[in-house]
Design brief:
The structure is a single chain. By secondary structure, the chain is of the alpha+beta class. It has 3 helices and 2 strands. It folds into 2 domains: 35 residues, no CATH class; 32 residues, no CATH class. A hairpin with a 2-residue loop joins strand 1 and strand 2. The termini are far apart.
Length: 81
């Protein structure tokens, strides 16, 4: 287990060391999830659909788009009724 000590700056900002950012693929604009358990905070790098499905990433994204479009059509139909 790697352990780092960082300082909390103004407005609660912390700096994630560059070697961790590179290792985990964290870049400017990346989103992280904070999980609070008791008195501990865990930072989690969420996977996007493409990373989660690997080689089928593009296909998974297309399926997600189709599901979203279908659901949007259902909602519009319900609103009109």
């Amino acid at each position: 287990m790697e352990k780092y000590r960082v300082k909390v700056h103004k407005k609660g900002l912390i700096v994630i060391p560059v070697d961790i950012r590179r290792k985990l693929g964290i870049y400017e604009g990346s989103y992280l999830e904070l999980v609070v358990e008791g008195n501990e905070i865990r930072l989690i790098v969420p996977k996007n659909l493409k990373e989660a499905f690997g080689a089928d990433g593009e296909k998974a994204l297309e399926v997600a788009r189709l599901i979203s479009a279908s659901r949007r059509a259902e909602v519009e139909k319900e609103i009109r009724s």
